[in-house]
C-alpha cells in the first residue's frame, strides 16, 4: 500500500482529488478532518486514528468512480465513511488514507408507492428516510438502529438490526437494489424492484454487511410496508433472567409477534432513568421485558396484550405495566434508548453476541459464572426475541480491565458453544477482526479473502475491516 504518498506528499493527493471533485470538497487540514477520524466505537476500544489523511466528499457515483480509479492506480487506502455511528471502528483510518465521505449523496431519488419501495442516495440519513415516510403517512420502514444519524448506505454496509428485528428482520431482508462503485471504478447495479430473482449468484446479498470492503454503495432501494394502526407498550418484570427468557418462545408460539421484545437488567434501566432525571416505573423483580405491540385494531392490541401478560404470569412474572398513552410509551422508550448513557465513560466493550433463542438462559448463566470468575461487573440488555444479547464489560476506572481480552474471548467461546455468533448486528470491523478464527475455519476465511480479492484486487477499500 502506497501510504507514503499520503503521509509525505499529501498536497499531491489533494491536488489530484480536487481535479475530480472541486477545490471545496477536499481537505487535509486537521481542524477540518477531526470529525472524520472517529466513529462511535467505545472510547476504551477505539484504535488510534491516523491523522495523515485526506478527506474527499464526492457528489456523484461518477466522481466516486474517478476517485477510486486514482486510488487504485496509486494503491492508496480508501476509508469509506457514512454517518460515523458504527461501533466496531469500521470507519476509523488506522493508516494514512483517503477518507471518502458519502455526505453529499443525500437525496431521495424516488418514492414508488405502487411498488412499496423507496430509492435513496446512500448518504441520506435514517432521520431523512423517516421524515419522508412521515410525510407520506401510509408506509413504514422497519429497521431502526439506535442512532438516526446513520446513513442508509452505512445501514446496508453494516447490515444493521435494532429492536424491531424480531418481527421484521434486519437490513438484509429489505434491500431490493444497490448501485455500487467498485474499487476499480466500474459502476454496477445489483438487484432491482423485484420480489423474486434467482438469476446467478446473489451479489446484492454479498454487498450487504460488507463494511466498505467490497465496494462503495451509492444508491439503495428499500422495501416498504403498510403502517400498523395501533401500538402499545408493555413492561413485565421477573425475579430471574431464566423466567423472563422462558416466557418468550411461548408468546411467539401463540402467534403473537411483537414489534420488539427487549430484555433489560433492572440496574441498567434504573441508572438510565436516573440520568434522565426520572424514575423507572417497575419496582418489583430484578429484570424486565419490554414488549412493543403493533396491531391492526384496538381489539387485537388488547387481546394480544392480555395474552402476553397471561403467558408471562405463567412463567413467574411479578408485575406488569401497560403504557397506554403515547406519553407513557415514549417515556419508557426514552429510558431504554439511554441505556448506554450512564455507562459510557467506563465501558470496556458492548458485546453483541447472538445465540439460538432457546439457549439464551444457559448463555446468561454462563456469563454470570464468568462475571464472578473474572471479578467484572457485567450488565446485560438485548433484543431477546432474536437471541441477541449486549453484555457490557465494564472498564477499570476508565481503563480496559487487566483480564479484558481473556474475559471477552470466554464470552465469544460461550456463544459459539451454543451455535452462536460473535456479532449479531454491529459487525466485525477492526475491533473483532482478530476473532474471525474463533468462528470460522481457515477454509472459510480463505474463501472470504478470495472474494475480497475478486472485488478489490489491490485491497484499497477499508483495509483492516473483516479480512485482508
Ligand atoms: C446510540 C447507538 C445505537 C445503535 N444501535 C444499533 C442497533 O440497535 N442495531 C444496529 O445494528 N446498530 C446500532 N448502532 C450502530 C450503527 O448505528 C449502525 O451500524 C449503522 O448501520 C452505521 O451506519 P453509519 O452510516 O453511521 O455507518 P459508518 O459508521 O459510517 O460506517 C459503518 C461501516 O460501513 C461502511 N460504510 C458506510 N457507508 C458505506 C457506503 N455507502 N458504502 C460502503 N460502505 C459503507 C464503513 O466503511 C464502515 O465499515 C448504534 C450506534 C449508536 C451510536
UniProtKB/TrEMBL annotation:
UniProt cross-references to Gene3D superfamilies, sorted A to Z: 3.30.465.10, 3.30.70.2740, Uridine Diphospho-n-acetylenolpyruvylglucosamine Reductase, domain 2 (3.30.43.10), Vanillyl-alcohol Oxidase, Chain A, domain 4 (1.10.45.10)
Protein origin, superkingdom: Bacteria
Protein's UniProt name: FAD-linked oxidoreductase
Family to which the UniProt record says this protein belongs: Belongs to the FAD-binding oxidoreductase/transferase type 4 family.
EC number assigned by the record: 1.-.-.-
Keywords in alphabetical order: FAD, Flavoprotein, Oxidoreductase
Single GO term (MF): oxidoreductase activity
Enzyme class: oxidoreductase
CC cofactor: FAD
Domain (FAD-binding PCMH-type): residue spans on this chain: 48-227
Amino acid at each position: 500500500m502506497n501510504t507514503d504518498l499520503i503521509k509525505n506528499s499529501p498536497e499531491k493527493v489533494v491536488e489530484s482529488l480536487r481535479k475530480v471533485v472541486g477545490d471545496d470538497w477536499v481537505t487535509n487540514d486537521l481542524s477540518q478532518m477531526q470529525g472524520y477520524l472517529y466513529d462511535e466505537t467505545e472510547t476504551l476500544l477505539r484504535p488510534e486514528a491516523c491523522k495523515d489523511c485526506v478527506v474527499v466528499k464526492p457528489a456523484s457515483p461518477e466522481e466516486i468512480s474517478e476517485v477510486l480509479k486514482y486510488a487504485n492506480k496509486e494503491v492508496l487506502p480508501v476509508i469509506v465513511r457514512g454517518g460515523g455511528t458504527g461501533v466496531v471502528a469500521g470507519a476509523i483510518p488506522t493508516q494514512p488514507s483517503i477518507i471518502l465521505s458519502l455526505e453529499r449523496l443525500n437525496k431521495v431519488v424516488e418514492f414508488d408507492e405502487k411498488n412499496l419501495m423507496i430509492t435513496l442516495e446512500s448518504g441520506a440519513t435514517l432521520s431523512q428516510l423517516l421524515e419522508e415516510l412521515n410525510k407520506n403517512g401510509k408506509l413504514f420502514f422497519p429497521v431502526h438502529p439506535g442512532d438516526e444519524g446513520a446513513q442508509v448506505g452505512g445501514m446496508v454496509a453494516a447490515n444493521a438490526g435494532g429492536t424491531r428485528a424480531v418481527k421484521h428482520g434486519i437490513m438484509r431482508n429489505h434491500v431490493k437494489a444497490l448501485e455500487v462503485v467498485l474499487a476499480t471504478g466500474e459502476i454496477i447495479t445489483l438487484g432491482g424492484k423485484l420480489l423474486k430473482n434467482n438469476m446467478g449468484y446473489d451479489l446484492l446479498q454479498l454487498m450487504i454487511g460488507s463494511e466498505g470492503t467490497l465496494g462503495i454503495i451509492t444508491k439503495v432501494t428499500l422495501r416498504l410496508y403498510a403502517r400498523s394502526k395501533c401500538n402499545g407498550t408493555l413492561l413485565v418484570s421477573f425475579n430471574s433472567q431464566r423466567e423472563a427468557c422462558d416466557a418468550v418462545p411461548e408468546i411467539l408460539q401463540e402467534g403473537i409477534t411483537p414489534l420488539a421484545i427487549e430484555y433489560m437488567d433492572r440496574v441498567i434501566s434504573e441508572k438510565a432513568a436516573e440520568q434522565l432525571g426520572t424514575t423507572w416505573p417497575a419496582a418489583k423483580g430484578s429484570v424486565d421485558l419490554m414488549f412493543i405491540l403493533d396491531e391492526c385494531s384496538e381489539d387485537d392490541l388488547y387481546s394480544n396484550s392480555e395474552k402476553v401478560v397471561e403467558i408471562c404470569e405463567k412463567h413467574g412474572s411479578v408485575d406488569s405495566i401497560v403504557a397506554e398513552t403515547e406519553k407513557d410509551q415514549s417515556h419508557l422508550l426514552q429510558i431504554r434508548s439511554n441505556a448506554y448513557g450512564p455507562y459510557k465513560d467506563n465501558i470496556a466493550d458492548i458485546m453483541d453476541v447472538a445465540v439460538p433463542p432457546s439457549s439464551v438462559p444457559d448463555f446468561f448463566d454462563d456469563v454470570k459464572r464468568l462475571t464472578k470468575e473474572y471479578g467484572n461487573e457485567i450488565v446485560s440488555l438485548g433484543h431477546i426475541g432474536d437471541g441477541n444479547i449486549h453484555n457490557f464489560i465494564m472498564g477499570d476506572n476508565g481503563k480496559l480491565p487487566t483480564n479484558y481480552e481473556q474475559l471477552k474471548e470466554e464470552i465469544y467461546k460461550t456463544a459459539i458453544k451454543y451455535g452462536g455468533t460473535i456479532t449479531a448486528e454491529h459487525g466485525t470491523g477492526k475491533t473483532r477482526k482478530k476473532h474471525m478464527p474463533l468462528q470460522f475455519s481457515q477454509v472459510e476465511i480463505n474463501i472470504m479473502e478470495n472474494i475480497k480479492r475478486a472485488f478489490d484486487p489491490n485491497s484499497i477499500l477499508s483495509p483492516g475491516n473483516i479480512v485482508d
